């Protein structure tokens, strides 16, 4: 692990990625999503499976929101309630995260979640939704559109890359990342509760600017199933969907964060997103400054503007 960190120290973005992976392996979170939002009274979901549940708000054109790693659907609550006046909004909760049950041991995470979303669209009368996902949720949204282009009208990925481990460098591959992913997953499974919570708190500080947002991230992660977290993390670190970008017909917007005070500098963030989405020249790239990974928490008004423009296109 030390050798890995030294190799990555030459780039700010790589160093941020390395620090996140090391923190996650000790109990911290990589690609965790979740601003502080009022929980309110629980609403019974309209769809249940052993992979996800969905809460529906409003009426109108369909919009699906997917949270990221270890997060509750509450990450999208404020945007969902705002849109519910004009849209039918579907708030997804992934199994195993934020106190949701996980019954799959060390089995696969990403593909069954994608299959569950496709089944939901088929079974629930959802008509070619716009799909908006944050972080790992953005990767799931891309994969859903790649595998089921007939089901999805458009995709917005929020601070999400088609290969997350590309943050380590342009020559990184899924295979070269596999040993680190396996090691990090094992460390996560073996961490005691105190170490896990402390690591989550360390990781949260670099993922959002607001202390209250950081605190709720920690609670969601601690309430998540460790095996679900380990399986999801291992898969995200070793899943590369860049080769499929060139054949995508579904429009894609990629919103990404830049923060001169503790996050990714603008020039480095621009270079990374341009490079990683190069296989999809039609992708609409939008940088949001003054934000860390939690764009919807750090810059909610700017996030709302981008969502509205995305849905109006």
Protein model, in words:
With 313 residues, the chain is α/β, with parallel strands linked by helices. It has a single domain, classed as Rossmann fold, CATH 3.40.50.1820. The protein is 44% helix and 14% strand. It has 12 helices and 8 strands. It has helices at residues 2-8, 12-25, 77-83, 110-123, 136-147, 174-190, 193-205, 211-223, 226-237, 266-276, 295-298, 300-312, and strands at 47-48, 52-57, 62-66, 88-94, 130-134, 154-158, 252-258, 284-289. Strand 3 (62-66), helix 3 and strand 4 form a beta-alpha-beta unit. It starts with a helix and ends with a helix. Mean pLDDT is 87; it is low at 1-45.
Give me a quick take on this structure.
The chain has 313 residues and is of the alpha/beta class. It has helices at residues 2-8, 12-25, 77-83, 110-123, 136-147, 174-190, 193-205, 211-223, 226-237, 266-276, 295-298, 300-312, and strands at 47-48, 52-57, 62-66, 88-94, 130-134, 154-158, 252-258, 284-289.
């Amino acid at each position: 692990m030390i050798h890995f960190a030294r190799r990555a120290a030459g780039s700010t973005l790589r160093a941020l990625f390395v620090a996140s992976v090391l923190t996650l392996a000790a109990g911290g979170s990589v690609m965790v999503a979740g601003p502080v939002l009022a929980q309110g009274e629980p609403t019974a979901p309209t769809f249940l499976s052993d992979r996800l549940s969905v809460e529906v708000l409003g009426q109108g054109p369909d919009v699906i929101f997917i949270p990221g790693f270890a997060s509750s659907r509450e990450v999208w609550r404020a945007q969902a309630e705002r849109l519910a006046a004009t849209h039918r909004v579907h708030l997804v909760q992934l199994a195993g995260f934020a106190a949701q049950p996980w019954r799959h041991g060390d089995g696969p995470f990403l593909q069954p979640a994608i299959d569950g979303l496709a089944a939901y669209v088929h079974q629930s009368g959802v008509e070619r939704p716009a799909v908006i996902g944050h972080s790992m949720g953005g990767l799931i949204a891309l994969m859903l559109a790649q595998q089921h282009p007939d089901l999805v009208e458009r995709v917005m990925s929020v601070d999400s890359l088609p290969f997350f481990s590309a943050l380590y460098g342009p020559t990184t591959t899924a295979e070269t990342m596999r040993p680190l992913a396996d090691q990090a997953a094992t460390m996560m499974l073996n961490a005691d509760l105190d170490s896990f919570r402390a690591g989550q708190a360390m990781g949260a500080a670099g993922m959002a600017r607001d202390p209250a947002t950081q605190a709720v991230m920690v609670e969601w992660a601690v309430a998540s199933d460790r095996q679900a977290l380990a399986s999801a993390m291992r898969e995200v670190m070793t899943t590369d969907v860049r080769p499929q970008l060139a054949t995508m017909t579904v429009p894609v917007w990629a919103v990404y964060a830049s923060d001169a005070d503790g996050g990714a500098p603008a020039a480095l963030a621009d270079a990374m997103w341009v490079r990683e989405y190069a296989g999809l020249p039609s992708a609409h790239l939008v940088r949001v400054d003054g934000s860390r990974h939690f764009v919807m928490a750090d810059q909610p008004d700017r996030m709302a503007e981008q969502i509205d423009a995305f849905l109006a296109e």
